[in-house]
Amino acid sequence: MVAEFQKSTMYLEQSEGVESGDLQKNFDDDGREKRTGTLVTASAHIITAVIGSGVLSLAWAIAQLGWVAGPAVLLAFSFITYFTSTLLADCYRSPAPHSTNRNYTYMNVVSSHLGGVKVQLCGLAQYSNLIGITIGYTITASISMVAVKRSNCFHKHGHHASCSVSNYPFMIIFAAIQIVLSQIPNFHKLSWLSILAALMSFAYSTIGLGLSVATVAGVGHHVKTSLTGVTVGMDVSGTEKVWRCFQAIGDIAFAYAYSTVLIEIQDTLRSHPPENKVMKKASLVGVSTTTLFYMLCGVMGYAAFGNKAPGNFLTGFGFYEPFWLIDFANVCIAIHLIGAYQVFSQPIYSFVEGGCQQRWPDNKFITYEHALSIPCCGVYNINLLRLVWRTTYVVVTALIAMIFPFFNDFLGLLGAASFYPLTVYFPIEMHIAQKKIPKYSFTWIWLKILSWTCLIVSLVAAAGSIQGLAQDIKTYKPFNTQ
User: Fold this and answer.
1) Rounded to whole angstroms, how far apart are CA atoms 175 and 180?
2) 462: which residues sit within 8 A by CB, 6+ positions away?
3) Residue 397 to residues 97, 182, 254, 411: CA-CA distances in angstroms?
4) Among 247, 273, 339, 478, which one has the highest count of C-beta atoms within 10 angstroms of its own C-beta?
5) For 328-365, how does the pLDDT look when each residue is reduced to its tens digit (9 = 90+)?
6) How is residue 91 annotated by DSSP?
């Protein structure tokens, strides 16, 4: 990384007609283009990454855990996520938070602070999780698009009509949109899309919350709720209760995870004020905003539907009317997932493209930017590697989503495998190494206790995901409609 910085500055110093003042104005201390990210843009990236359509499934999760454990688990994971994100933010620069050496990716951070085989393990966990998320988002977005057509059908033909609609055309539409948006070069150019996606997440979360409140306040409303959630012997069997609780804990834990893209988001921030301080504030804004919406939607959703809460009360038709509002909410979900797909896919794009540029620096197919004049938009640079590679990636993820439409269970399993190392283990271990915390000291012991506790949670969630996956495979019918 130091060599890259020296190479960049040598090139800049040798450039004819470029004065030092211009260099300072247009480039950062590492020789890269001036970063312009702020607290607002970083917060938008975080909210886009964290608040997924899963916010609308939290009523189901709280229904499994009950009034006591459900909100308690939500608050516990919000604290853990924020705490470990602050540790990770301090590792962006190494060896100390205010050093000159930057780390551009999560793998760079682990390499600088821990090294060894842990770098490869980090890459495996991070990129497998990111790929899984993009496939899962393709499925989830298509479900929201289908829900619009089904909502109109139910309104026209009644709530008991079959209204079967295929997901596959909508997956193709989603993929076509992503092919275009994937030509956005990097995170630095993605701020407008993240802000739009964050606004969409607020919109559909607010709609879900409003419909829940309206249902609770309705005349004659009465549903069964309890302190411990669904009742054994009446709602579920004892075994099913255990598996559902495992799945619910996993859903809540992974709904908060955004560590996979935290360093990439932090790398968009301007140098002053210090990036770690801005990132900590952005994490506080993002996690607290997320927790507020999660708590309101989960608690009010459970109050509205009780122990029979659907998996998602917008796409799962907990509500049918007003149908136009349901339609609008599902459109917001689809738009949000379009932006979220880009937030999670950019590190994958950067990893492959950076590796190719490093290995074949003189290949024009990889490095050359072709200027294309677009009417009303100005000049846009097209890179052939970026065009071919990113298009291929989007097409492949869409095909996998079509072949395995129950991939969300695989996603839960991938999340279980990546939550512990990426959100908890690596941030804690790097903090211990960075601060040189003595072994067996009080701080060392409680950090290790937190780490091991989260490992147990990940294993429990993984078991729940495997059980759900086994159930889905039993009833799987390829290419069927909903």
Assistant:
1) 9
2) 250, 413, 416, 417
3) 37, 13, 21, 13
4) 339
5) 988 998 998 898 898 889 889 988 998 898 888 888 88
6) T
